[in-house]
Amino acid sequence: MSTGFFFDLDGTVTTTELLPCIASELAATDEIATLTKLTMDGHIPFADSMRLRCLILGQIPLEQVHSVVSSVPLDPLIVDFITNRPKECAIVTGNLDIWLTPLMERLRCRWYTSQAAFDSRRLGLTHILDKGQVIRGVKSSGEFMRHVAVGDGANDASMLEHADIGIAYGGVHSPAPVSVEVSKILVNSSESLCSLLKAL
How far is CA 190 from the centre of its chain? Predict the structure, then answer.
């Protein structure tokens, strides 16, 4: 049976949240970390939070962002799983395509992201990703017979719910209650996660 594996990025493939790391370039780490946590827990709608965080972080030159993103640690077991199955794996993240170039070059699988562009040195959001819509679209294409999604935040809930097998992942921090609620499985380490994925 052909299976597609869809991974959240922050706190799933990465071992920390990207946006607070980027915010350190502006000495705004605490503010962005607070916004990120409130969003992950479902207290602020993802789209509203993303617009606000991009308004703040859009002041940082793209080269600086890429330097930060390049240094963000990744979970080696999950990276190994993805790089050994690039055609079956995809990253599904609300983060911006133009920020993620260094990771895209490292993880040469499929990526679904929010999108933005710089216009006169101002960052402008052009598309905010709906993770559930990604899963629905791939399912309707008939490319895979089964769809497995892995995530931890409230904004992952729609992806986890629409997958055939949703896995709430607590390897970096506790998954949001809504993500646990809509998932079929809860896993709390990358070792257990990768063993499970290989067995599916």
Answer: 15
